[in-house]
Amino acid sequence: MVPLWRTVVPVRITHVSDCFVPRTGGIESQVLGLTRAQYAAGDQVRVITATSGPQFLEFPVDRLSFPVPFDLPVHPRTYREVTRLLKVSRPEVVHVHAGVLSPFAWSATRAAYDLGIPILVTIHSVWGPLARPAFSLIGSWLKWNRVAMSAVSEVAAEHMRASLGVEVDLVPNGIDPSLWSRAGVADWNAAPLQLVSVLRLAPRKRTGALLRVMEELRNLEVAAPLNIVGDGPERALWERRARRADLPITFLGRLAPVELKLVLDRSQVFVQPSVKESFGIAALEARANGLAVVARSGTGTHTFIADGINGRICENDISMAIAISEWNSDRQALREILEHNCHVPPSYSWKEIDYRVRAAYHRALTLDH
After folding, report:
1. pTM summary value
2. Considering its fold, how many domains does the chain have in total?
3. What are the strands of the beta sheet with 61-63, ordered from one edge?
4. Are 193 and 322 part of one and the same domain?
């Protein structure tokens, strides 16, 4: 069998995801970006999703949306409907994008499995304590050694291996670096430093940690305003608390990519507070823009941030503030990181990611179904 990543023959690929555009988020952007890259390469691609929206982009989209409260991406007849669609389109491989709680994706996985279609499952989250019992249940009807598994970072892959005891490929997230790069190096002498963070304002992302970092910077007598890009259920809460604490934080809300790039272009440091980050797409985009990234340890951001080379990896929130304070005092150290990040683009272009994905597809094809 000729490996798929070495052929020029178009491959029939069906992507499955609970959430897809027009919803916004990490999985949504990754499924869209990868599918577009494969379409541009000549593959026959389509997407099956539970998210309502247009039926066609450049490629067909089968939207099995169902009227439920809060517009949740679920469908009561997922297995039956996905089975019907797969019998018609007859893909060579089904690429499932999932987290732990992805009922639509897992039901679609079962449909593809029962049809004997090779499957690659990419997990876009870090599994917690609930993962093992949940996937023991799924394993009652699916043999994990017959499905190719992948994760977006080594941190996420380690949790999967511990839960499933199978081989897990590393298939990182991708971006188009040219969309985020700036014309020149960020001004390391800017006074004050301009900080930026991009995140959903929800409990899992630890917005409160950003306020603690800013409070500690004030204690260290560092004046460095922070722009927070993003929205979510906790936005009003943290806006109130930032005002009460008189912290130099501006909440910009959700921005279009072109607007976000303008914010990155006038910043020097990207701050990522999450400790449950499976990868960190926003941090990668900031890294591609040339910013120095300060992030917490034990996350998927380690995939593309090396401590002291293109950012700082910190053990706790206080050490994040200390790292920023050190850059504020030692502008030459900051300059070296900014110049490195501007002149050495990250190696996560869609062409490179597609190569890794095709290798994973080939492994899916070689498994005993």
Report:
1. 0.90
2. 2
3. 61-63, 44-49, 12-17, 93-98, 119-123, 148-151, 168-170
4. yes
